[in-house]
Structure formats: C-alpha cells, structure tokens
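During data preparation, we tokenized the protein backbone, and the record follows.
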Amino acid sequence: MTRAASPALRRLFAESCRGHLSRQVVRTRRWYSDSPSRPRTAIFFPGQGVQKVGMLTPWLEAFPSTAKQLVDEIDSFMGYKLSDVIQKGPPKVLTRTTNAQPAIMATSILILRILEKEFGFRISDHVDVALGHSLGEFAALVAGGHLTFQDSLYLVQKRAEAMSEATRKAIKEYGGEYGMVAIITEPEYMPALIETVRGFVGGSDAGNKAGNDEDVPPIEQVLIANINSKNQIVLSGNLERIKTLIAHIRQFLGHDPRAVQLHSDSPFHSPIMKPAVAVMRSLLNKKSRVPGRENEDIVTYPAQLQCISNITARPFKSKEDLKDLLARGCLDTVRWWDSIRYLDQEERVRRWVGIGPGMVGRNLVGKEVGMRGKDMVKGGGVWAITDPLEVEEVLRGLEDTRGIMDEEEVLQNSIDSKLELVVAVDRGATTPVCVAPIPGSQLTLQPQRSPSDSPSKPHDILRHDHDNTLDRLHRRHRAQRRSGQNNPLHISIFPSYDAATNSFAPIRTPLQFSLLLSSTIDVFELRAKHNAVSGDFGLLHAVDDRLAAYGAQTNTGVRLVCVVDMRGRRIGSAAGSLPSSAAPPPAVSGLREAELKPAFRAMQNAYVRLLQNPFFEPDEHTPLGGRGGRKITSRRFAEDMKRIGEGWTPGVTNLG
C-alpha cells in the first residue's frame, strides 16, 4: 500500500489494523510499565516549514469519527476555522506564520490523540522523554503533560502573531529584506564556522540576546537560529547581511559552504524577535484558559514526562526555568543537534518516534544516531508517524524492540555470542579508522609468495588452524571493542571462484572478515614511521596460505585495506556459475604491490565523493580528530566499491 492509497483503502487499513494493534498495545502495557529494561524512548515533534495543504485528509479518511471530533475542538480553541486553512489553503495562506505555526502544532497533537484513542497508546507507558524542534517544543510540552492542548494552541497563536508583528515593525522602521538561510558544511569546519559567525555579529553567545540592553539596528542583525546537525546551521536576519557574512566565511575561513534560503516570512530566532519574548513572558505568567482550571497556573511542573529545552539542550529544571526558556524560544538559538547528542550519548535513548507532518525531524535524528526504522542490532530505531499507513510499522517496531538490550549489556552478558560481535562491528570506533576493504575473494590470483615469507608477529594468531584463529580473533575483537579500536566502517566482499563446485562462494563471512581486519589494521601502527610520507604500506601480512592483506593510508588518516585471494585465477563474472563448457582463463603469474595502487586511489576517490555529499553525515569525516564513525551505508559508496572490486585486475591503471 502506498501513500497514494484511496480513501476506501485507508479506511480498510484502519479497520483491519486498529483492532489488532490496539489489542497488541494493551496486551503489552503491563510489560512496559513493570519492566526496567525497556529501551529508553524519545518522542519528538517538527517545527515550522513542514506544513502542507491537506495534511489532515489521511487522518479524516482513516479515522473519521475521532479525527472530526479533534478538528472541531481545534477550530473551537482557535476561534476560527483553522481546519479550512489547513485543508484548502492556498499554500501562500497556510505558509503565513500566523497560520503555519498553529496548524503544524495542532496536526501533531491530533495524530498523538488518534494513537491514544484508536490504539490504546499511553505515552507514559512507552516514552521517557519528549522534545520538539522550535515550534515543536509546544507539542512536546503537551505530550509531556506540562501544557494542555487548549492552552498550548492559544500560546502558539499569540506567539505567531507577536513574531509576525515584530517582523512587520522592523521592515517598516528600518527597511530591508529578512529571512533565514541554511548553511551546509563539512563537520570539521563547523566549530570554526560558528566562531566566525559569532565574531562577525560581535557576540560570544550565538543565541542569547534576551538580556542585551544595547539594541543593534535590525539591518545589522544576523544570528545562528538553529544548529540542526553536525554539518548544518541556519542563519537568521537581514538577508543582505547574511550574504556579506557568507562572503566573509568564504574569504577568511578558506571554505565554500553551501547556502540555501528557506521559505520563511520572518527571521525567527534573531534579535528582531525580541518584542515577542516580552509577549510570551506575560502570557506564561497568566492562569490557564481551560474551563475548570482557571485558577491554576498555565504550566504544570513536574509532569508525566521530562521535556528537553531547545535552548539548553537539557531537561527543564523547574516551572520558572520552563517559563523563562519557553519565552526565550522566539529569540535564542535552537540547539537541536546538542539535544539529540545529549539523549543519544548521555541518556542512552535508543528508540525515537517522530509525531507530526513532514520527515525533516526524522531525517535529522536518524542521521545523528545512525538508524532508519527498526534496528535490532542497535536495540532500537527511528520512526515517524506522518500518515495512518505508518502507524502499524511504528507500533510493531516498538513491540519488536521492547526487550532488546543496549549494546553494552549485550557485550557484558553475551560475551561469546555472535550478536555481540555484529553489534560491535556496526558501532563507531574512537580510533580514527576507515576501512573500505576489497576482500579480494573475487580477485583470485596465483600465489606470489609463501606465507612463511611474511612476518609472523604480532599476528601469529592468524597462522593457526581456522577454528583456533577465529576463537582468538573473537577475544581480540572484544577487547578492541571495549577500547574503541579497529572497527571497520565498510566491507565489500567479492566471492571467489571454487573450481571444485564450478561456482562462486565467499571464503570468509562478513563477521570473519571484520575480525580479520581488526587485527590487520594493527600492522599500520608498526609501518607508520616508515611509510608516513607516501602512505603506501604494501603487503601488510599473509593471512594464511590463500589470503594476503595489502594496505594504504591517506594523508587525512583514512586507512584502506585490500584482502586478495592469491590462489586460483581471475574470473570475469561473479554472478552464478560458469558454464561447464567454459575454458578456464589463463593463470596470472603473480602480484606486485604497485598493481594495487589503482584500486587504492579509486577507493580514496570514492570516499572523497562520499564526503562531498552535503546530506551525508558520517562521524568519520574527522579521522585525525580521534573520532571514529558508524558503518558506512551509502548506496553510491557501495556501488563504487563494487565497481572497483569487479573492475580491478593486475595491469589496470585507472578505476576512477
């Protein structure tokens, strides 16, 4: 079923899955509330920019009764038919800040309420922490119980009006054109980029201008509005001033970042928004507007869930802290990247559920934590519910990962299991290692030298019988995993031709190659002092009487390994079996180290192309900084490795 499914199909889907999934969630509720080992889970909500005309339609079609009741409540709270603007547009009207902000927030909570009413989803049983990107912070506070839906919609409506009015006054008084521009750069340039921006605008704090008594004319105001990821920030303010700043960066930082102007009618999170902060402070100090709660504070603290502040990237500490930071949210920098890192690295959140229109939030979270959808290896997943057709996948994913242990628990409790080794391979290293090996199982050559010609230490463990070698490698790999060393980031395997069966088959499993490579890379340390200039390490060592490992290292610390099958003959195709009538290709009489240089050059070029993609965000961008990275999963990179592995043969001089 696709997103283009008809209303009838949506209703059929809803009826078929509603009963099953709601029973499934209710059935597991006791487990969620009683078990201390449930993976920590975060729910997150999108900010402005994800609005789309008709975004309520799928929910009205799939759950007409529940959705219609919620839509009527929204219109009643707003005092006008916001639902007509959402459903009919036109886009120019929906995109106005005064419509877009309440529309996005209302749609996000509508989806959450449908999950609760139709599927028995109790957020306190499934989720530990809530957060939202800028505007999404209000939806997170509703989900966490700190604000009621009605009060939150009122606050968002008044916030949007105040922000639009602040922009209108700035244009009237000072002139100029205002907006927001996303800057995309390589992660290693990000710290210098942020410092350059701060120096350019004359402030040490990129976002906190709420207490600055000396007003700067808006024509000169530019600020970092969002720090979205390790390679993306958003600038906000006067567009001419932003262009000057980008030219300054290109001239003095020695870097040419990519700049993309966003579709925004106001420069959010810039000093122009200072009047909106005063409006929000006043509103947050009033009582609730909900009937029956008129004498209660508009903010509830503590509540059922912790919520993360956009400004501090940490949980709110008190009711006063929440009010102060929420008011400043119009003005200060959104530290989204820091928030995700905090939850991932310090709070060890392993399951992430996005609620609301658009996929931007899920993509930002997924890239940072290295997951898409359910990831059983990492004991969690990153999901998003933007359409009824996605509900089943998300609830099943939560069900399937409910008992998965964190990887550290796996390492401690299953020290001899293969699962532990797979987890270890997929997680990042702290040692700067990028391995894009061609375990040359397809590159089958006549032996060049005997294994006895290769150094026997410190890798003599590779010279024993296969079972003993694998057992020793398991123990070695576990030790290296604990110290963060030598975890390959990419492995491409090309099966060797087996003359006995007249077919192709790998001579090692991916796990065995990973273990082998973890030890192989140790040889780089021994050779570094002799090959630091050229980076050409040549033959690292003979693995056994069939495999030989060759290596090279780039000047940025990226290490490349080719493991070549030295027995047999080069085969032209790795797919399927050879015809019985096919004559064997002529034998190749040996392999000189220089003949692998084209392969290493092509591998390095492929890696450079990977880093030049502004939407790819691997940790291994900064190998010399001592940070490793997660497994490379780029399809383009894998295709490049396949092309190199299948195209290389002794004598080839250019592989791209």
In short: The two ends are 40 Å apart (CA to CA). The chain has three domains: 42-168+273-401, 169-203+214-272, 486-568+590-647. The longest helix spans residues 149-174.
